[in-house]
Specification:
single chain; Alkaline Phosphatase, subunit A; 10-stranded mixed β-sheet; 7-stranded antiparallel β-sheet; 12 helices
């Protein structure tokens, strides 16, 4: 609304006559004009933005998307008071999504390494500053330095990412602002760098509480300022370590605050929701809800060893994977009085879209004219209009170089609302194949899948393949394998490492491969779908060991239990050579610790090998005893397991890093 000053005066003058009346009308006109100008300024003011991005929160954990395992009333509140986007996608890991979110560019245009943001780029913080906003960030940074000193090639990458002081934010309160080994805790007794200095006396504090208090204070101070604010809350919840929250019973015992156990995951999800509720309430309390846009999003799927009930079906978290449990995420937009309430939107949205959307909100879309932006603004959809919509989402997913990331390899894929196509030709229909186990072959294409294949292939072809990292900086080669061809497990330095998902096995109802990157070892496991607690009958996997070193060999089985019933027993059958089948059980107390070796020193089987059996083939057979038993790998060794696992002469060592799990 705009009204020229002379119009205001004339409007006032028309209400009286004569000189006295003219003076009176002049005063009235000024008053009326001032009122109009106030209204005009209020109407023209750019809205505040509160962008919240959860860390490792898959759509299956959220009630409004069908999740039944956790209570998320405040996310439901956002859905009721705004718009729920049902087709929002991210990349499978946090750095990949966050750099796309902050730059609007696909990964292949900027990638430096995991945990790094190229300092030559402009973030949405920079451009929102240019658009007239006060800017702030809280939560996790992890974009300046990542690799520890001992990691091969680390000297080329340590500390080369963007510093928070140069990232386009006027204020900040963050975890992991420099080297990984110095990051400290993000939860109990956190290490937080806030506006140029580390916070002291956090011994009895919880990191997410500190950040929400920082955000609340920031919004309070900025509410009455002329400039609007852009507040980006890069949540740490519910990312591991899976620790107690202040709402957990164990939080009362200070000695238990750093305990790691899957039983705390529901507490972490629900605490994340609780903090979202606190922020919504603060915006309401400040009286700025109608001029503040609240956006909620997540950077990738849930941690891989978390089971959640999705509409009555127990599903596995997909973090790190490109199936929809890894890349489909919850998303809400609430702008009270402007965005429709209680609506759902099925348009495709991806992480690059936030950059242009924020500039549209600011009324400054032209600021991105000098940037190569891949995103498409969803601002029209936010206000209930039909904007430009995506025909597809593109994902360029490369994690290397980076510690613990060299076991992955490049994946390029494109998807629409029904199908997903990978660069190697695999086509899936995720709604019918959530774990993407059964690729649709071209010879079995329907009219719909053929049309999708043609369309999505054009998307992939439009994105030229890039060599986005220095091969010399990647310590292990990217070797493509096929489990259908089996794998040769040979004796190298008296050690054999067997990857379960790399072994040819019968695809009957006993097992399912999950969290496995196709053709790549060290990236997944096999989970049992049925119980065989009386005796092994089906789904028996056979590992053939080619042994050269004589002597007594020890066998470790890396496994865990993943049943939603925490009281469920865990165990498996194993047969060595011609020996009889034997049952092995894990201690119930160990299920929450992650992967465990269920065969302990007092109960480890030995595999006697005579000196004259040079390179003899020995068989190990495994069968599940209970449903949801998960088999990852088997290690056969003569010396200490860690010694041989770290020995790079072991063929499997080049596929993944090793750690001492004992």
């Amino acid at each position: 609304m705009r009204l020229h000053l002379t119009q205001c005066i004339i409007s006032g003058c028309k209400q009286s006559s004569g000189k006295k009346a003219l003076r009176s009308g002049f005063k009235v006109g000024l008053i009326v004009c001032s009122l109009f100008l106030l209204v005009s300024n209020a109407a023209a003011k750019q809205p505040n933005v509160l962008l919240i991005m959860a860390d490792d929160l898959g759509f299956e954990t959220v009630e409004s998307y069908g999740g039944r395992s956790y209570k998320t009333p405040n996310l439901t509140r956002l859905a009721q008071e705004g718009i729920q986007f049902n087709q929002a996608y991210a990349t499978p890991l946090c750095t990949n999504t966050r750099v796309q979110l902050m730059t609007g560019k696909y990964q292949h245009r900027h990638w430096t390494g995991f945990g790094l943001l190229n300092p030559d780029l402009k973030t949405f913080g920079h451009l929102m500053q240019e658009a007239g906003y006060s800017t702030a960030i809280a939560g996790k940074w992890q974009l300046q330095s990542y690799d520890p000193p001992e990691y091969p090639g680390a000297e080329k990458r340590r500390g080369i990412g963007m510093k928070i002081q140069e990232a386009g934010f006027d204020e900040y309160s963050l975890f992991h602002v420099a080297h990984t080994e110095d990051k400290g805790s993000r939860y109990a007794s956190p290490k937080i760098f806030q506006n140029g200095q580390f916070i002291s006396n956090t011994e009895n504090s919880y990191g997410p509480d500190i950040w929400v208090d920082f955000i609340a204070d920031y919004m309070t101070r900025k509410t009455n300022e002329e400039r609007p604010f852009f507040m980006y809350y890069a949540m740490s919840l519910p990312h591991g370590p899976i620790n107690p929250t202040p709402h957990s019973e164990d939080w009362k015992d200070k000695s238990k605050r750093h305990l790691q156990a899957l039983k705390y995951f529901p507490d972490m999800v629900e605490y994340a929701d609780y903090l979202v509720g606190k922020l919504i309430d603060k915006v309401d309390e400040l009286g700025i809800r109608e001029n503040t846009i609240i956006i909620f999003y997540s950077d990738n799927g849930t941690q891989w060893n978390i089971l959640s009930d999705l509409d009555g079906e127990w599903v596995q978290g997909g973090k790190g994977l490109t199936n929809n449990l890894g890349i489909k995420v919850p998303m809400y937009v609430s702008w009270k009085g402007t965005s429709p309430e209680g609506k759902t939107n099925n348009d495709l949205v991806e992480s690059t879209d936030f950059f242009p959307t924020l500039l549209d909100i600011a009324g400054k879309p032209g600021l991105a004219s000098n940037e190569k932006v891949d995103g498409i603004s969803f601002y029209p959809q936010m206000v209930g209009k039909k904007g430009k919509t995506r025909d597809s989402v593109y994902v360029h997913y490369e994690t290397r170089p980076g510690v613990e990331k060299d076991r992955f390899h490049l994946e390029r894929l494109a998807l629409d609302k029904d199908f997903k196509l990978y660069h190697d030709g695999r086509l899936y229909k995720p709604s019918e194949d959530i774990y993407e186990e059964w690729a649709i072959l071209p010879e079995y294409d329907s009219a719909a899948s053929y049309a999708a294949r043609v369309k999505l292939q054009k998307v992939l072809d439009s994105m030229l393949p890039y060599q986005i990292f220095d091969p010399d900086a990647v310590p292990r080669e990217d070797t493509w394998l096929s489990y259908q061809q089996g794998f040769s497990f040979d004796d190298n330095s008296a050690c054999i490492v067997m990857e379960a998902e790399s072994v040819a096995y019968p695809r009957d109802e006993s097992w399912i491969a999950q969290n496995s990157i196709s053709g790549h070892t060290g990236s997944g496991y096999i989970r049992a779908l049925r119980e065989q607690h009386e005796q092994p009958t089906k789904g028996i996997m056979t590992f053939v060991l080619n042994i050269a070193t004589p002597g007594e060999w020890i066998i470790d089985v890396r496994h865990r239990h993943d049943h939603y019933d925490s009281a469920k027993e865990n165990g498996f059958w194993m047969k060595i050579g011609d020996q009889a089948w034997k049952a092995y059980h894990s201690d119930q107390s160990e299920k929450a610790k992650g992967w465990e070796f269920g065969i302990h020193e007092h109960n480890k089987p030995s595999l006697p090998v005579s000196a004259h059996l040079n390179m003899s083939a020995q068989k190990i057979q495994i069968a599940p005893m209970f449903e949801h038993f998960k088999l990852d790998r088997i290690v056969a060794y003569r010396s200490h397991r860690t010694d041989c696992a770290y020995n790079l002469s072991t063929p499997q060592a080049k596929f993944h890093p090793w750690f001492d799990y004992n």
